[in-house]
Amino acid sequence: MLDVKNITAGYGKLQILNGMSIHVVKNTITAILGGNGCGKSTTLKAITGLLKVTSGDITFEGESLLRVKPQDIVKRGIAYVTQGKDVFPSMTVEENLLLGAYCIKDRKVIKNNIEMVLESMPRLKTRFKSPSGVLSGGEQQMLSIGRGLMSNPKLLILDEPSAALSPKIAEEVYDHIVKIHKSGVTILLVEQNVRAALRISGYTYILSEGRVVMEDTTQNIRKHPDIKSFYLGNLPGKK
Which of 22, 51, 110, 224 has the least C-beta neighbours within 10 A? Predict the structure, then answer.
């Protein structure tokens, strides 16, 4: 479904991605793990057109995304939920959800999508007319994910959905992510919460210094004897 092929990218003279390659299979949950500064979020920005790729290629359903504008990438079926509960606090839950459907013209489809989001995330239903600024951190994260679903994505990209959440609320958010996946949405997940990501993903990539240093089924990653050292700076291939 999604192929990131040997890309390089960065910010000005600072190159972050150094030959980054991943593959996301349809109907799976794929996780990208790694420490701070390893290129996780940069990879997502490159995929969604928010950061220019200087070499390599990114294809989605066989077509390159390199010259596609971010808004058109959404129309092709990729939704990106950024890190940090990115909601508009003065707008209601309903208004935030409607923003996610900006590329859909059919009002019936929009209505059905709202009903789908509220059914899968009941907390939002009770807050539907409330300003999103009064929602708890977990509710705001659910709203961000729900807004991403409003565009009918084939691929939902989540950047650290458990960030700054208590373990209990993070687990609830992850339960919703599993439900979304079971509804037929492919998910690409970036996380520092290793335990949560390994609980739900089927395939895992581990990054260091802007490239993949390990990849395998999540089942095999869990069994790897050096998994703990990956987050102490002792990554394979790192000097």
Answer: 224
